[in-house]
Amino acid sequence: MATGTIPDSPFAFSTGIVLTSTFMTLLSIGIAARQRTINGFILMAQVYAIPLVLPLFGFLQLWHTDLFMFLPTEGTLRLLVSPGDGLSTGSVLFSVCLLSLWNIAAYVWAYRSYTRHVLMRIGEGGAVNGEI
User: Fold this and answer.
1) For every residue of 38-73, which 3-state class applies, written as one string?
2) pLDDT tens per residue across span 85-101
3) 131: helix, strand or coil
4) Distances in Å between the alpha carbon of 100 and those of 22, 26, 65, 94, 95?
5) Burial of 47 per CB tally in 10 Å (0-12, 13-18, 19+)
6) Using DSSP, how many helices (H) and how many strands (E) does the chain show?
7) Terminal alpha carbon distance of the chain
8) What is the pLDDT of residues 33-86, one digit of tens each?
9) What's the chain's Rg over C-alpha atoms?
10) How distant is the alpha carbon of residue 61 from its chain centre?
11) Which pLDDT band, with edges at 50, 70 and 90, does 3 fall under?
12) Cα separation of 110 and 116, whole Å?
């Protein structure tokens, strides 16, 4: 797909954008809930993002392994780039299911992180003698 053109499969492209955006947002919420400073968030976001970069090596034909198929970035790359290259319906469904599963996992992790690291801290120093 050339820049500025309509994708050959707008549904797959849009689905890839939405699922990847929600995954990255949920991942960021989970990371932010565990950090006390912006610098800590920025550092840890990079740590969590490193494994997500690995499928780019296969995309750039530098290094490939079948393990990349289970990372969300592989599903994203397939949905954003490959529809113009004749991506099969099965591959689109696999990518959507893969990203959906990663979104569910990221939601559960972000919810637990927020509950444990933000909501539980509210009571630690906010109230004196039961007053708010």
Assistant:
1) HHHHHHHHHHHHHHHHHHHHHHCCCCCCHHHHHCHH
2) 667 888 899 999 999 99
3) strand
4) 10, 12, 22, 10, 8
5) exposed
6) 5, 0
7) 56
8) 999 999 999 999 999 999 999 999 988 889 888 888 999 999 999 888 855 566
9) 19
10) 23
11) low
12) 10
CA dist 16 and 13 (Å) reads 5
Q: Which two tokens stand for residue 20?
A: 């990847």
Q: Is the pTM of this model over 0.85?
A: no
Q: Which amino acid type is present at position 75? A: G
Tokens of 92: 């689109």
Which amino acid appears at position 112 of this protein? R
